[in-house]
From TrEMBL:
Protein name (record): Coenzyme A transporter
Keyword Transmembrane helix: yes
Solcar repeats (start-end): 43-134, 141-237, 263-352
InterPro entries (UniProt xref): GDC-like, MCP, MCP_dom_sf, MCP_transmembrane
Gene3D superfamilies: Mitochondrial carrier domain (1.50.40.10)
Organism this protein belongs to: Basidiobolus ranarum
Lineage of producing organism: Eukaryota, Fungi, Fungi incertae sedis, Zoopagomycota, Entomophthoromycotina
Principal cellular location given in the protein's record: mitochondrion
Segments passing through the bilayer: 209-229, 324-346
Compositional bias per record (Polar residues), positions renumbered to this chain: 1-11
PANTHER family assigned: SOLUTE CARRIER FAMILY 25 (PTHR24089)
Length: 356
């Protein structure tokens, strides 16, 4: 009699267990579907735009002085050639700029940088999230997906903000004249009015603002792709191999919703730093060539006929292969914390704005 009663009880228990499992599975599926649907909503895109732009501005402000010195080195500014190629060169150059123009000199062109970097970073992160979601299969992205999404995101942001980058570089390259530094509008006017010959029959002055754009496109694809890919791989490594790097209180949330566990601050900074260093190494020769090409109007206003091939030849003949890596040490000093802070700030902004 007791066995007869126990059997239905066990069956009921199993049935309840299966029902609970199915409900849990359904809730996870619904959660995944909801997250994926929200990723394409206006609210998600807007918050991603704000998070990305804020992260970019925070990171750029941190490394602005190094950025100024790096541009002077990359473009072979005659006044700062003596500091190039030495371990302490960046600090000596920064010291001279400080004595000549004060703290303002170290941040010369920074307003142009912020005007450019907010939309640049915002568009980059928005494009990355949207493209990755479109390319991802079964809700999971692959290394190839990360690289392609990162490359296309970088290309999208550069296309929209390149003129601002060109003006920033020209402002950083110029030295003070009569105690005054060139302003944004003054530099824009000079670049716009430069007479740059073209092989095409018809050329508009506005195309001056896209000088060196082709080189930028070639450089941004490996840089952005490698940056997002490496960052994703590093995050995955920390989540799988280093449990101490995870925010413990988020584990239960992950089990219930399928969301990724957040990394602790130090782990997130390491992921971004490694991503920045790797991406910088891959794309640096193209960046050096582009800088030389961008400032050709400032170097020789009367003759802007220098081609990309001639720029590459000139760099190689004057400094050899090492000429394409001039300022790379500064690049590491700048890009490693830049990308680390950028990704860290972006992830924290997403958390604050409640987007995943």
């Amino acid at each position: 009699m007791s066995n007869t009663v126990a059997q239905p009880s066990l069956q009921a228990s199993a049935s309840t267990s299966n029902l609970s499992t199915n409900l849990s599975s359904d809730s996870r599926k619904k959660s995944h579907g909801t997250i994926k649907a929200e990723a394409h909503s206006f609210n998600y895109v807007f918050k991603t735009f704000i998070a990305g732009g804020t992260a970019g501005c925070a990171a750029k402000t941190l490394v602005a002085p190094l950025d100024r010195v790096k541009i002077l080195f990359q473009s072979s500014n005659p006044h700062f050639e003596k500091y190039s190629g030495t371990y302490l060169g960046v600090f000596r150059a920064g010291k001279e700029i400080f004595h000549t123009s004060g703290i303002r000199g170290l941040f010369q062109g920074h307003m142009a940088t912020l005007l450019r970097i907010f939309p640049y970073a915002a568009i980059k992160f928005v494009a990355y999230e949207q493209i990755r979601n479109l390319l991802a299969r079964s809700g999971r992205s692959t290394p190839r997906t990360e690289f392609v999404a990162g490359s296309l995101a970088g290309l999208s942001s550069v296309l929209c903000t390149y003129p601002l980058d060109l003006i920033r570089v020209r402002m950083a390259y110029e030295m003070p004249k009569n105690g005054k530094v060139p302003g944004f509008l003054d530099t824009l006017k000079v670049v716009y009015q430069e007479k740059i010959p073209s092989t095409s029959f018809f050329r508009l002055p506005v195309t001056n603002l896209y000088t060196g754009f082709g080189l930028t496109v070639i450089g941004v694809i490996p840089y952005a792709g490698a940056s997002f890919w490496t960052h994703s791989m590093m995050q995955r490594l920390f989540r799988e191999r280093f449990p101490n790097a995870l925010v413990t209180k988020d584990r239960k949330v992950q089990q219930e919703t399928g969301e990724k566990v957040r990394l602790k601050a130090w782990a997130q900074l390491i992921c971004g730093g490694v991503a920045g260093a790797f991406a910088q190494t891959v794309s640096y020769p193209i960046e050096v060539t582009r800088r030389h090409f961008q400032v050709r109007g400032a170097v020789n206003p009367e003759n802007n006929r220098t081609t990309v091939k001639e720029v590459i030849t000139k760099i190689y003949q004057s400094k050899g292969v090492g000429g394409f890596f001039v300022g790379l040490s500064i690049g590491y000093l700048k890009v490693t914390p830049l990308v680390a802070v950028s990704f860290y700030a972006y992830e924290r902004m997403k958390w604050l704005l409640n987007i995943h």
